[in-house]
Amino acid sequence: MDVRGFLTAAEERGWLRHVTVTVDPHLELARVVHALGEEPMRFTSVKGWGGVVVAGLCSRRRHFALALGIEEQELMPALLAALRAPSVPQVVEVAPCQEVVIAGPDVDLGRLPLVTHFEGDGGPYVTAGVAVINDPDLGRNLSYHRLMRVGRRCFTARLVEGRGAHRAWRAVDGDLPMAVCIGAPLAVQLAAAMSPAPGVDEMAIANALHPVPTVRAVGSDLVVPAETEIVLEGRLTHDLGDEGPFVDLTQTRDTVRQQPFFVVDRITHRKDPIYQALLPGGDEHRLLMGMPREPTIYDAVSRVCACRDVVLTRGGGHWLHAVVRIDKRSPDDGRAAIMAAFQGHTSLKHVVVVDGEVDAADPHAVEWAVATRFQADRDLVVLHDQPSSSLDPSALHVPGEKARTTKMGLDATTPWDTPTGPSRPEDYAAVEYGAVDVADYLGDRREPDASDA
């Protein structure tokens, strides 16, 4: 489902908010999106922009389920199936995303409604753009890179060290062609946030989630989603400039770095294009980036024990903290799940492993499991000097290198004191009160009398 199809379906369900007063993309628009709870919303009057701006498309799991044509509880199985069996998308000759082509001196990024989110930001940013590059060794790669406008045709692009686009950029001597897709189909946005094995094409993962026709870019060999709203075609150069400050996933201000320039050679778009905005550090940002990591953790844990569920928590920015639910079948399953979880998502900092009857999405239930089943001298795993996330301000940051941190895992599963399980499992079970009908005790029912006979 493309963005337009999603907006129509969201409108039918009463999910879509309409903002008709004129809004300034400099600071004001972001504040309105935040104040309205990041629900799907449509701005029809944006200062300096003749079209529509939308936001909040990726803020709820139910939105992705709607776009993929499945139920919300089917998201995890669908992501796992697509990750395990990607499907190469069709390439078409004519595409909506190329209905209008702007090239050369006519390119002016100032005409786009790029949003400045906070006082102190380095500049206006593209935050919902899916970047498409071809790695010279591994093939096509989709990923997210925030883009800070620094000129009429130029951005600085944040490339996370050691990841796909950064490796490809380092591997080429000249400029690296890149296309940035704004308002891509939601299946593409979801797949671009996943971290499959090197060489696995995220576009094929997107196509396995929901059919995604593609088209060759106007000015390069890159292939982009045909139903994207706006495509910025250009190249990553090896010249560097300031990028940032920028408030990132954890709602903390990221530092200024020297990052490559992304020079835009042409802009293609649909007629009456829709620009998609996304609040950095908001629910949409956290869910979009974090939810696709849940199946990669699930897949890794499933290789070592019986995994039931994975939840990246809101307090951890849907990025740094996870809860893993397993069916424990051997004494070491909890520890094995901890180690596998860190392999399944290398930016993960803390993980809690719980038993199958504990709701991984309920913070109260998880804390109860830690309180009643965990002993630090027995169940704590500490890993020193590990690769970390640049989003964690407490990690060790060295310019140009992967951040480093100490990671922690808590095995909050029921401890086994025999080879087959706990000798007294009842000691670890929550005891529930029996049910009663409260109407019997609050005077809401009268006793039958003779007149009722």
Number of domains: 2
CATH class of the largest domain: Mainly Beta
- What would you give as the CATH superfamily of the largest domain? Electron Transport, Fmn-binding Protein, Chain A
> Which stretches of 5+ consecutive residues score pLDDT under 50?
none
How far do the termini sit from each other? 62 Å
- Oligomer designation: single chain
- Give the averaged pLDDT, no decimals: 93
CATH fold group of the largest domain: Pnp Oxidase, Chain A
Percentage of residues in helical conformation: 10-25%
Describe this structure in words.
The chain has 453 residues and is α+β, with helices and mostly antiparallel strands. It folds into two domains: 3-287, Pnp Oxidase, Chain A (Roll); 292-423, UbiD C-terminal domain-like, CATH 3.40.1670. The chain has helices at 3-12, 28-35, 61-68, 75-84, 164-171, 186-192, 202-209, 283-290, 293-302, 333-344, 363-373, 376-379, and strands at residues 17-19, 41-43, 52-55, 91-92, 100-103, 125-126, 129-135, 139-144, 147-149, 154-157, 176-182, 214-216, 223-225, 230-243, 246-247, 253-254, 257-269, 274-276, 306-312, 321-327, 350-355, 380-387, 404-411. Strands 5, 6, 7, 8, 9, 10, 11, 14 and 17 form a nine-stranded antiparallel β-sheet that branches. It has a five-stranded mixed β-sheet with strand order 19-20-21-23-22, sandwiched between helices. The protein has a four-stranded mixed β-sheet with strand order 1-2-3-18, with helices on one face. A hairpin with an 8-residue loop joins strand 19 and strand 20 (321-327). Helix 4 (75-84) packs across helix 9 (293-302), helix 6 packs across helix 7 and helix 9 (293-302) crosses helix 10. The longest helix is centred in the last third of the chain and has 12 residues, at 333-344. The chain is globular, with a radius of gyration of 25 Å. The model has no long low-confidence stretch (mean pLDDT 93).
